[in-house]
């Protein structure tokens, strides 16, 4: 035969021709779901490696880490320039006048202000936005997130109700889900479409199972008819056999009951084999 092995260039051209449209559609879908910060091809590569139990590539799926300038890249050890000596600033006069160190006296009966000129306000601990919102738990610690979630900047938050879990994609603080009328309507429509889709799938599976059972029963009845000489293919046509198989119904007689009597004419055909009618 005239078959020959393809070269690397022909193989690459065929792969681009076959998989090019699918890769473009996948890239558009990933960009629409996760934004431009995620590289679709690296995400596909890491997913394929994880599916086939291969070693993950060292590349990151975030574009921001790839597009860093030369100034932000780590320099090799020993390439740093020695620090240049800076001119020392003249020492400040640490002797503060007594009038500047003491707060101004306030007349009796007036409230003292919490912040005065020359005194710094007390530093309060930084509280995340999720802790100040009612019904929202703080994000999970980094130790409980997977490597892929940390790479994507994922933080999972959900309200107190376990049935309505919400997954937020962001790189900073958690943005709470605003419970507006439009969001509730969209969620109801989404749930209705999902319920209808699952109902259609369940109905299709039930029909497929019923068809499989019918085909199995028809095969069993066909094997049963093949053992009866008067109903074989040499006597009956294929169409007659199919019609006869579709009309067969199992019937159980009591012990000692007569199936038919002599000189009786009926409209039923009884096939008895090994005591099973």
How many β strands by DSSP?
2
Mean pLDDT: 68
Largest sheet: 2 strands, antiparallel
Listing every helix as H and every strand as E from the N terminus to the C terminus, the arrangement reads: HHHHHHEEHH
The number of helical segments is 8
How far is the first residue's CA from the last residue's CA?
A: 59 Å
Low-confidence stretches: 67-74, 113-117, 150-174
The class by helix and strand makeup works out as mainly alpha
How big a fraction of the residues is strand?
Answer: under 5%
Percent helix among the residues? 40-55%
How many whole angstroms does the radius of gyration measure?
40 Å
Report the principal-axis shape. elongated
- Strand order across the biggest sheet? 1-2
What does it look like?
With 277 residues, the chain is an all-alpha fold. Among the domains are: 10-66, no CATH class; 181-245. Helices cover 41% and strands 3% of the residues. The chain contains 8 helices and 2 strands, in the order ααααααββαα. The chain has helices spanning 8-34, 40-51, 63-66, 98-101, 129-132, 147-152, 181-226, 238-247; strands spanning 154-157, 166-169. Helix 7 crosses helix 8. The longest helix is centred in the last third of the chain and has 46 residues, at 181-226. Mean pLDDT is 68; it is low at 67-74, 113-117 and 150-174.
């Amino acid at each position: 035969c005239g078959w020959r092995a393809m070269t690397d260039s022909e193989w690459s051209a065929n792969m681009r021709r076959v998989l090019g449209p699918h890769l473009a559609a996948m890239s558009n879908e990933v960009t629409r779901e996760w934004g431009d910060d995620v590289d679709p091809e690296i995400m596909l590569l890491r997913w394929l490696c994880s599916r086939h139990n291969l070693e993950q590539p060292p590349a990151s799926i975030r574009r921001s880490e790839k597009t860093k300038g030369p100034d932000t890249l780590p320099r090799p050890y020993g390439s740093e320039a020695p620090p240049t000596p800076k001119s020392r600033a003249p020492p400040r006069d640490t002797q503060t006048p007594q009038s500047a160190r003491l707060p101004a006296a306030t007349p009796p009966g007036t409230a003292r202000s919490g912040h005065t000129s020359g005194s710094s306000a007390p530093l309060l601990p930084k509280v995340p936005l999720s802790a100040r919102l009612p019904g929202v738990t703080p994000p999970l610690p980094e130790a409980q997130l997977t490597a892929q979630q940390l790479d994507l900047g994922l933080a999972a938050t959900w309200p107190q109700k376990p049935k309505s879990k919400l997954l937020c994609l962001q790189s900073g603080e958690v943005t709470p889900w605003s419970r507006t009328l439009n969001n509730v309507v969209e969620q109801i429509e989404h749930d209705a479409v999902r319920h209808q889709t699952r109902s259609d799938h369940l109905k299709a599976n039930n029909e497929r199972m019923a068809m499989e059972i019918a085909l199995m029963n028809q095969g069993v009845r066909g094997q049963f008819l093949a053992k009866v000489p008067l109903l074989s293919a040499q006597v009956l046509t294929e169409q007659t056999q199919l019609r006869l198989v579709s009309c067969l119904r199992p019937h159980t007689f009591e012990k000692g009951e007569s199936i038919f009597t002599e000189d009786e004419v009926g409209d039923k055909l009884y096939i008895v084999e090994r005591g099973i009618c």
